[in-house]
From TrEMBL:
Record's keyword annotation contains Cytoplasm: no
Domain of life: Bacteria
Residue ranges, annotated region (Disordered): 286-318
Organism in which the protein naturally occurs: Streptomyces bauhiniae
Domain Xylose isomerase-like TIM barrel, first and last residues per copy: 29-284
UniProt-listed InterPro entries: IolE/XylAMocC-like (IPR050312), Xyl_isomerase-like_sf (IPR036237), Xyl_isomerase-like_TIM-brl (IPR013022)
Name of the protein in question: Sugar phosphate isomerase/epimerase
Keyword annotations of the record: Isomerase
PANTHER family: HYDROXYPYRUVATE ISOMERASE, XYLOSE ISOMERASE
Ranges annotated as biased composition (Low complexity): 286-303
Pfam families the record matches: AP_endonuc_2 (PF01261)
């Protein structure tokens, strides 16, 4: 008798601290543990484990002890809006003309790698940044590769994946762009992918479920929220167009074992509410193989079934 093959492992859900910015970090972690989350997407920011304040290593150890006591896993995220520059959102970037500015962003990523290693994180998330005015794409790709090289060396030494996120409006915006970077860097083992499932709905030619299947070999971190075709706006579950049973079934089938993190940074004013309602939605969707029945009566139909109008992609950052 042939033994049965084990099914895919259950998905493990987390919530991003960038959607809980009005809470102290300790309170945010306690909330997520109480609600039953498996982990947290920890954005290094001035209110949550400030990466630039003194005694980072000691503060990281304290957070690590708290995570362990609460039974929470962690991925380290680096999308804080103003942590490096109080006047320039997500600035400076790895693409900036000034080498000193690029170095500041790379230093943030190096700090994030050290934090991730100390916390035993699944991965360190990063992104490319937008194309600076007056910079051609070839130059920008060269800057990106050059700036990431020392970060990848540190990630390799720490055995922590660096998970780059395709972001609408950025130089690296799509799965195809991720592969362009991967090939340019020589396909390093510790370069992986952060896949934001809403971004797939927003602008990828494939459906979110097909994006998951196509990206499976490189998946190191997953972000999740609802979204509509052609609009880069992170929405609560049920307010967009994503077929969540289908996409979560595809994700589970890949054997992905790290965190799938809810990404609702613009709903931080009601973060505890959305943290409470998101997990039951995701668990229900993950348990429902039949995607024909809607999970929410309020979910709209696609306004752009035949393509993405480039003018409506919306703001380039969450």
């Amino acid at each position: 008798m042939t033994p049965e093959q084990p099914g895919p492992a259950p998905l493990r859900f987390g919530y991003g601290t960038n959607g809980l910015a009005d809470l102290r970090l300790d309170d945010a972690l306690a909330l997520l543990a109480d609600l039953g989350y498996d982990g947290v997407g920890l954005t290094l920011d001035h209110m949550h484990l400030d990466p630039l304040a003194p005694d980072l290593a000691a503060r990281t150890r304290q957070v690590g002890r708290r995570l362990a006591a609460l039974g929470l896993e962690v991925t380290v995220e680096t999308g804080a809006r103003y942590v490096l520059d109080p006047r320039r959102k997500h600035g400076p970037s790895l693409l900036d003309p000034d080498p000193a500015d690029r170095s500041r962003r790379a230093d943030l990523l190096l700090r994030a790698v050290r934090v991730a290693a100390d916390l035993g994180a699944h991965a360190v998330h990063s992104f490319s940044g937008t194309l600076p005015p007056g910079t051609d794409e070839a130059t920008a790709w060269n800057r990106l590769a050059e700036a990431l090289n020392p970060v990848l060396e540190a990630a390799t030494a720490a055995d922590i994946p660096l998970a780059v996120e395709p972001e609408p409006g950025h130089l690296l915006a799509t799965l195809a762009d991720f592969h362009h970077l991967r090939h340019a860097l020589g396909d390093p083992t510790h370069l992986g992918l952060t896949l934001d499932l809403g971004h797939c709905q927003c602008l990828e030619p494939l459906s979110p479920a097909d994006c998951v299947r196509a990206a499976a070999p490189w998946l190191r971190h997953v972000q999740i929220e609802d979204m509509r075709r052609g609009h880069h706006e992170h929405l609560p579950f049920g307010d967009g167009e994503i077929d969540f049973p289908a996409v979560l079934d595809a994700l589970a089938a890949t054997g992905y074992a790290a965190l799938t993190v809810v990404e609702l940074p613009r709903h931080s004013h009601a973060g505890p509410h959305y943290a409470e309602t998101s997990l039951p939605f995701l668990r229900t969707a993950a348990a429902r193989p039949d995607s024909s029945a809607p999970l929410s009566d309020s979910a709209p139909t696609s306004a752009f079934p035949d393509g993405v109008p480039s003018a409506s992609l919306g703001p380039p950052f969450p």
